Every structure is written in C-alpha cells, then in structure tokens.
Amino acid sequence: MNPEISVVIPVRNEALNVPALYEELTTTLEGFGRRYEIILIDDGSTDQTFELLAGLQARDARLRIIRFRRNFGQTAGFAAGFAHARGRFIVTSDGDLQNDPRDIPAMIDLAQSFDIVAGWRKDRQDAFINRRLPSMIANWIISRVTGVRLHDYGCSLKVFRAEVVKPLKLYGEMHRFLPAIASEMGVTITERVVNHRKRVHGRSNYGISRTARVVLDLLTVKFLISYSTRPLQIFGLLGLGMGSLGALMSAWLVIVKYVYHQGIADRPLLIAAVVLMVMGGQFLMSGLIAEMLARTYHESQDKPIYVIREIREAAARPRGVVGA
C-alpha cells in the first residue's frame, strides 16, 4: 500500500545532522499516524553521509535513499525526489535541522484544503546582513515579478499535492519558484508560520553565492508563467517596436533628403534606423523559432537533470505474502 505522505529532503555533507534528522522525522511522522515514506537524496556528499543513510535504510523500510554520482544541486535533488515519491502529499525540507519537522502535521492538515502550503520563517535564525536582508529583497522582487505574493520563497519546508508538483519540470535553481510556476495551473496557495532553528552542525551548502543564478532563473520563471505558450508575443512586441521606430527614422530621413534636399549619408540617424529595423526583424524571427521550439524543448527529450548512482529501498514483497 502506497504511503500518504512523502518527505523529500536533499542532503550534502550532513553526516553530523543525519541521525538527528532521521529521529526527528520518524518521531513526528509516527506520532501523526499517517502512512509515510522519507526520501533522502545524497547530493554528491564527500563525507560519511551516504554510509549513515545506508545504515538507517537497512533498518527502516520507510526510508528510501537516492544517491547522485556527483553534486547536481538542490533543485535536482528535489526533482529526483518528486519523481520517486509515491505519497499523495509531498513534503520538502532542508537537511540541516533548521526546519522543524514538528511543523509538518499542521501543514499536511492545511493541505487538505489547499494545493500548496508554503512555510514562512517569520522569526528566521540567520545572520541579517548576508542571509535575511538579501532574502527579504528577493522575496519582494519575486512576489511582484511572478504575481504570487509569498513572504518566504526561500523556505524549503513546503507541502504540495502530488498531482500539482509531479508534472513540473525543474532546471537551474527553480525549486524555490515552485509555487509561482504551479500558479499557472490555477492552484490554491497558502502560507503558514513555521519554526526556524539555528544551524548547529556544518555550514550551508546552498548559500548566497547562488544569487546571480536565482535572478536569471527568475527571468525564466516570468517567461514561463507569462509567455511559455506564446513566446512570439514577447519577441514579436520587441521586434515590432524596434522595427517601427527604425521605419519612422527612415521615413524622416527620406523627407530630409527629398523635401529639404539635405544629405543623410553621414548622419548617425541613418545607421540607427537600419540597425533598429534589422534587429526588429531578428526578434520577429526569434519569436517564430521560439514558438516552434517551446513544445519540444526538454519535455520531448525527457532528459533528466541528474544521474543516479543507486537507490536504496526495501524490496517489494511477493503478492500473497503477509508480513510479520
């Protein structure tokens, strides 16, 4: 029988946190009384993380381990977890113990009425200058660009209905934009204040160094939300605007030459008019090409963004065999 809840957590070099993470998760989920599985993705750890995970999985069939061949990043970790999750509700979290597993039951209860429940670290236990302040600015920008207003896009503790998150294709650093991407499907989203704890062991593997990539992915998300099925509209508008401006400049130069009988060969305006018309045509052609590629890129190839070395999970029992 499939579990009702799948908890998906990517980890990398979290050997000091893995035992406590497992204990807190199992204690909380067993107390909740719902069928569950825990999927931990080893994202190319170089310490004893995988050995600890393998030892825990050997004792607990509800624990499933996915091991990457190298470090592919947090987004790839979540993507692999989503692909292998069997639960009706999929919970995402970090593996550094800063997210509190005791928030999961209340978020699952909220997910009975909403498609996505996003955690909000209202009292975040991180340094203000290099973590909280950039996060506040990023949340403000993301909310306004995507139109999905959330206080804390960076909080990994979220609950999704499986039918909402499983069809989504993730690339780059796009896991943090999942609520915005899913909003295109008309999902219902709510927030819940969650407990956030100070990191005790190790250091963050996914820090502020990713800011530039996140900004670029935000542009991708905006394009996917607004123009993914009609790329010609954005490229076409740019092309028509530039081409029209170039045409107006050219018309004025024609008037200057044939009405006022002035030379135009040495005027910078002539070069600007030609460049604008050429670029306008290029944008229009790019839009047409994008229209043709939009339906075949990535999805038609079904090319994953990660490579799995092995999966550790309990063997399936033959039908008719009753466990002890």
Descriptive keywords:
2 domains; 8-stranded mixed beta sheet; 324 residues; 44% helix; Spore Coat Polysaccharide Biosynthesis Protein SpsA, Chain A; alpha/beta; 8 strands
Question: What's this, in brief?
Answer:
The protein has helices at residues 18-32, 49-59, 74-84, 104-110, 128-146, 162-165, 178-182, 211-227, 231-258, 268-293, and strands at 5-11, 36-42, 63-68, 89-92, 116-120, 158-161, 189-193, 308-312. It is an alpha/beta fold and 324 residues long.
Strand order of the largest sheet: 7-5-6-4-1-2-3-8
The number of domains: 2
The CATH topology of the largest domain is Spore Coat Polysaccharide Biosynthesis Protein SpsA, Chain A
By CATH reckoning, the class of the largest domain would read Alpha Beta
Helix-strand topology string: EHEHEHEHEHEHHEHHHE
Q: Give the end-to-end Cα distance, rounded to a whole number of Å.
A: 16 Å
Q: How many alpha or pi helices?
A: 10
In CATH terms, the superfamily of the largest domain is Spore Coat Polysaccharide Biosynthesis Protein SpsA, Chain A
Largest sheet: 8 strands, mixed
